[in-house]
Write a structure and sequence with these properties.
This protein is about 30% helix and about 25% strand. The chain folds into three domains: about 5-105, Cobalt-precorrin-4 Transmethylase, domain 1; about 110-210, Methyltransferase, Cobalt-precorrin-4 Transmethylase, Domain 2 (2-Layer Sandwich), CATH 3.30.950; about 225-400, Rossmann fold. By secondary structure, the chain is of the alpha/beta class. The strands form four sheets. A seven-stranded mixed beta sheet has the order 13-12-11-14-15-19-16, with helices on both faces. α10 links the parallel β12 and β13 (about 300-305).
Length: about 400
């Protein structure tokens, strides 16, 4: 039996040329060398047992567990094994005290160095063996710097098509960084017709204002002019509504009478784990909602065409409900909402007219619920000749009420 640890060594595309003396000594002393075929080919004169790493990671772990206690065993990996590499799998399978990691410079480090950009503020996304949708949260957040680890299926062309489909390709300068560290290294802007080495990563740099960047949008309180709209819950009211909804991650949200979807958009941006359903019957408003969903790359908003309460039938039961419009069917909608909303759920309702407010208040109190209400009237400074005055908006009444936890 040997007391040697399992040594994991990172390699660059230039092979053993830039390995440290310590790493080379581990390889020379090893009786078992595991790695991808490309990594093993760097050592044609090495004598010993070779383990070619394939997609069968369970088989690999079994062989490594069998060998490393008997004979010195070294695993070869790309770049930094602990950066989206095999290191994670090995940490799950072996005691930490039995592992030694000797990392190389990662491909992301090299890519940003070649582009002369800092990367401590970059968002790194791997679609290597993962769904291409993994890129959506970073694009939705309009991250200024994104590094994308690719694979044969999710290659530069597929990623650019995905960005185009979601309307954000024009917002980024897209670089493809191939064979980093090798003699045939190439760093180039993405071109649709170009052929790329399978050993590549992509770097997406958001364009600055001088080159046409979309204005930065705050985390909450999207300016009204940024949204496509005809029917719109105004910015200040949306902030109040979001506060009253008391959203929690993972909840199901109904936005009934969504108009142009402003409340749905704001809610969905707060957490990708929220499931938001925007229900609207007006075709033009629906088109605006869909445009806004695409504009903000929100995969967690479902746009539902139809009139409530019938359009609610196939939706999952909600934790939170916002009613921005009722189309004259408020009582029917409230009946359905309180039949379906989960215990401890919460409803927020905007009322423009006194009649709607009175109807909602009476319906809720008649059922022994305990609503709260706030009257809001915004006023904005407007020019008045050479001076300015405040021009008041129409008053709005916001009702909020919770469903008892025990029903």
């Amino acid at each position: 039996m040997t007391s040697e640890p399992l040594v994991v060594i990172g390699l660059g595309a230039d092979g053993p040329a830039t390995l440290s003396r310590q790493a080379l000594e581990h390889i020379q002393q090893a009786g078992v060398l595991a790695g991808g075929k490309r990594h093993l080919d760097y050592f044609p004169d090495w004598n010993g047992e070779r383990i070619v790493i394939t997609a069968n990671l369970d088989g690999l772990i079994a062989r490594l567990k069998d060998s490393y206690r008997r004979v010195k065993t070294v695993v070869l990996a790309s770049g930094d094994p602990l950066f989206f590499g095999i290191g994670r799998v090995l940490l799950e399978a072996f005691p930490r005290e039995d592992l030694v990691f000797l990392p190389h410079v990662s491909s992301v480090q090299l890519a940003f160095a070649r582009l002369k950009e800092t990367w401590n503020d970059a968002c790194v996304v791997s679609v290597h063996g993962r769904p291409i949708e993994s890129l959506l949260p970073a694009l939705s957040a309009k991250e200024p710097k994104i590094a994308v680890l690719t694979d044969v299926s999710n290659d530069p062309s597929a990623i650019c098509r995905y960005m185009q489909d979601h309307g954000c390709a024009r917002d980024y300068k897209i670089w493809v960084c191939e064979n980093l560290g090798a003699a045939d290294e190439r760093i180039s802007p993405f071109r649709e017709t170009a052929a790329h080495s399978p050993l590549n990563i992509m770097v997406l740099l958001r364009k600055n204002a001088a080159t046409g960047e979309v204005a930065t949008v705050p985390l909450i309180g999207i300016p009204d002019h940024v949204l496509a709209h005809r029917l719109l819950t105004k910015r200040e009211i949306r902030v109040l509504v979001l506060g009253y909804l008391e959203l929690q991650a993972g909840q199901v949200v109904w936005d009934i009478g969504a108009g142009s979807g402003a409340v749905s958009i704001e809610a969905a941006r707060l957490s990708s784990s929220l499931q938001v359903h925007a229900i609207e019957k007006d075709p033009q408003a629906l088109a605006h909602t869909q445009e806004n969903v695409c504009r903000f790359l929100l995969g967690n908003v479902r746009v539902v065409a139809g009139e409530a309460p019938e359009a609610l039938a196939d939706l999952p039961d909600p934790d939170r409900v916002f009613i921005g419009g009722s189309g004259g069917r408020l009582a029917d909608i409230l009946e359905t909402v309180f039949l379906r909303i989960k215990p401890a759920g919460r409803l927020v309702l905007n009322c423009i007219t006194l009649e709607t407010f009175t109807s909602a208040w009476n319906w809720l109190t008649a059922r022994k619920l305990c609503p709260e209400a706030t009257s809001v009237q915004l006023a904005h400074a407007q020019p008045l000749g050479k001076l300015h005055s405040f021009e008041a908006d129409r008053p709005l009444f916001i009702i909020r009420v919770g469903k008892p936890a025990c029903v």
